[in-house]
Design goal:
By secondary structure, this protein is mainly alpha-helical. It folds into 2 domains: 2-200, Rhomboid-like fold (Up-down Bundle), CATH 1.20.1540; 223-264. It contains 10 helices and 4 strands, in the order H-H-H-H-H-H-H-E-E-H-H-H-E-E. It has helices at residues 2-8, 16-36, 51-55, 61-64, 74-95, 97-120, 130-143, 159-176, 179-188, 190-220, and strands at 148-151, 155-158, 243-244, 253-254. The strands form 2 sheets. A two-stranded antiparallel sheet has the order 1-2. Strands 3-4 form a two-stranded antiparallel ribbon. Helix 6 packs antiparallel against helix 9 (179-188). The longest helix is centred in the C-terminal third of the chain and has 31 residues, at 190-220. 19% of the residues are buried.
Length: 281
């Protein structure tokens, strides 16, 4: 990672999130103007990543497809840009410009490779910037899991639960999908796995070791208090007030039911030997 950062450091672009959003806003406004003027066609048609068109010489598609605007109403596009800007700038402030650039570059390259592999296998491969929103969201949720999002401006939810829902959807698609679908899913989160995969593996190993230790501890641990009469112990009944009998020999513990009604224990040491009279006759 550090070596890659040193390579791209001279070309790192600050405020990359704002640049991407600015390009999307510009194309969105152009498309609105075309629709208002009853001019047909898609203003973004020449910037989609289509492998067949790239091989015919339209190589700019390799770097322009992240600027494809969302195909939705303006109000929802505005909220999408606002959230993406907040998440992206927060990651850039947290990581620094170079590492944030590297994060997006890895995602772009993974999707380019996935698009060409899918196209070579006969699938319709047109890549857009959906992976940007997904991976930036997942990275933000990983770094700031307790951040609160108000769903519908009313319901406060920690972002880690929304990220968990996204992971569940990706896992479901990975299980039921064909091998090409699985490949595309991996490509869409590849940069996230590069940045956080090792941490997740370490957490899984630590969790496994912790569960193994707790299981061994449960097997070897003895209850702190155990009733000598009925066998009830403090592990099975932690709220029970156990008592020790002062008239029994040794440390004899009893539950409240048997502390007043039990047979006192005596040790062999209490049996005194028969005395012999040693006085002179």
């Amino acid at each position: 990672m550090k070596r890659l950062e040193s390579w791209i450091r001279p070309w790192a672009i600050p405020n990359l999130t704002a640049i991407i959003i600015g390009g999307q806003v510009l194309l969105y406004l152009v498309q609105m103007a075309r629709n208002a003027g009853h001019i047909g066609g898609d203003a973004s048609a020449r910037i989609y990543l289509e492998p067949a068109q790239v091989l015919e010489g339209e190589v700019w598609r390799l770097i322009t497809f992240p600027f494809v605007p969302p195909d939705t109403a303006l109000i929802w596009a505005f909220f999408g840009w606002m959230i993406f800007y907040f998440f992206g700038t927060t990651l850039e402030n947290h990581w620094g410009t170079v590492r944030f650039n590297l994060f997006l570059i890895i995602g772009v390259l993974a999707n380019i490779i996935a698009a060409f592999v899918a196209w070579s296998c006969g699938a319709l491969a047109i890549a857009n910037n959906g992976f940007l929103y997904a991976t930036v969201f997942l990275a933000f949720a990983r770094l700031f899991p307790h951040f609160i999002i108000n769903l519908f401006f009313v319901l406060p939810v920690q972002i880690k639960w929304l990220a968990l829902l996204m992971w569940a959807g990706l896992a479901y698609g990975f299980v039921i999908g064909e091998w090409m679908d699985r490949f595309l899913i991996i490509a869409s989160v590849f940069n996230y796995l590069v940045f956080f995969g090792r941490e997740h593996l370490q957490e899984l190993r630590q969790g496994h070791r912790r569960r193994s230790f707790e299981a061994r501890a449960r097997k070897t641990s003895q209850p702190v208090h155990k009733c000598l009469a009925c066998g009830l112990d403090s592990d099975a009944s932690p709220k029970t007030s156990f008592r020790y009998c002062s008239q029994c020999a040794g440390q004899c513990c009893y539950c409240p039911e048997h502390i007043q009604n039990h047979e006192h224990q005596t040790s062999d040491e209490t049996e005194k030997p028969e005395l012999v009279d040693s006085r002179p006759q």
